[in-house]
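not sure who needs this but someone in the group chat was asking about MerR family transcriptional regulator from Skermanella aerolata so here u go. i didnt clean anything up, its just raw.
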Amino acid sequence: MLSMTDPPEEAGEERTFTISELADTFQVTPRTIRFYEDQGLLSPRRDGLNRVYSHRDRARLTLICRGKRLGFSLAEIKDFLDLYDVDDRQIEQMRFVLAHGRERIASLEVQLVDVQQTLSELRALESQIVEHLKAAGAAPDKNTKK
């Protein structure tokens, strides 16, 4: 974070971020960011006891958060991030994401079918119970009348 006593940015000097700035931006806790650092996903430089995050760290945090949101494990995310420097065009990185993304799609499609079947069963059960209660002369819910 810049203060009034910091020297002005020189041409080409990279913008840096504090842990608090990143935590606020990505709506995670500083503890989460430190955890990602412990896992080797981020590697900020140090300025005394303070962590100083680069634009690259911010971009990596963007990918970490997106990967988590999409259901990828931290190990998968780390493997993906590590592939960034393998080649200039990130071909292996894209192949990795494509393969793992396809696996995730297949897994989610199975889960979707399971959820749909469960909902169907629950709705059928609900209908049976409501009909049974009505046949017994009872209201389906405590707070409603027949």
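also The longest helix spans residues 91-135. if thats useful
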